[in-house]
Amino acid sequence: MMGGHHAASGAAAWVAVASTAPYALGWYPVSPLGVVSGALLTAGAALLPDLDHHSGTIANSLPPLTRILARITERISGGHRRGTHSLLGLAVFVALAGALGEMTTEIRGLGTVEIGAGLLSVLLMGFALKALKIAGGAARSWLLAILLSLFIALYAPENNGWLPIAVGLGVGVHILGDLLTHQGVMVLWPLRIKRPRKIASMPLLSKLWKASGSLSVPLIGRAGSWREWAIMVPVSVYAIYGVIEAGFAALRGWLV
């Protein structure tokens, strides 16, 4: 799936789960501003699994930091669409988000500063800006990511509590999105259960269970296909609707 569509699916997932607007589930309701900031963070989190590709778009979102992180991630995860695109990868990303949320320091005049959540927010914002083609060069990317993260820290400070949820949602919908492509993902990595030879002669099962051990439900075929666009255009519209509705609700709250 294309990067922009991964980001849109992450934002849509947050709107559906956290918003109390019409057409939303509202399972984890937050403030209207929390819906907006959470959608941005989850959009960035939906790009996290692609940090396993050292020359990919995400690796170049906030250089040189993201390039270094991408090379480390690629080496640990075993390559593209392996460890970071698995259930184990999902668990690790959520655990890391939770651990970073606990990293604080005391700064004179400011009190307790949650530096771990702040750093993760900057990183996720950088991913989202790059995937949505909002950022420009490295300097502009860093500036926008930092400014947006500061805005969230000041006006939606509760985000540190739900940051692991946003990361879990984002990574989860990314894995699901890539599962729907013809290449598929190794959901059970590091287990690599090879396809039996007998299944290779069965057209349907051979498409679902690749020789590499990847699983695939190729509803959208190749990344960027018309089927992907047919699915993701309404998903993107839903995400935009949710963010705008929450934004107006937050604005009304400020004006009252």
From TrEMBL:
GO terms for molecular function: hydrolase activity. The chain crosses the membrane at residues 30-48, 84-101, 107-129, 141-157, 163-189, 229-251. This is Metal-dependent hydrolase. PANTHER family: INNER MEMBRANE PROTEIN YBCI-RELATED. Keywords: Hydrolase, Membrane, Transmembrane, Transmembrane helix. It comes from Arthrobacter pullicola. The keyword Hydrolase applies. It comes from the Bacteria.
